[in-house]
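ok trying this again, last paste got cut off
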Amino acid sequence: MQDLMLTMLGGIYQFERSMLLERQREGIAIAKAKGKYRGKPTNLELHQQIKELIEQGVNKTQVAKQLGCTRKTVYNALAKE
């Protein structure tokens, strides 16, 4: 009986997950059609933004907060100069 219940709950979970992913794909398609979905910036774009802000004299922690990345990303971008 326990195996049956576990199997049923697993099946329900898989169904719910597939429905969630389908709705997510539809939402992304609608946002792209409206021009509002851009995704994450590429590493090159992000690294360029980091370097520009550092050159302007902005604190590394503030750069990370402003760009929505971690301090580790800021340090990695600066190390690749």
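PB: full thing came through this time. The mean pLDDT is 90.
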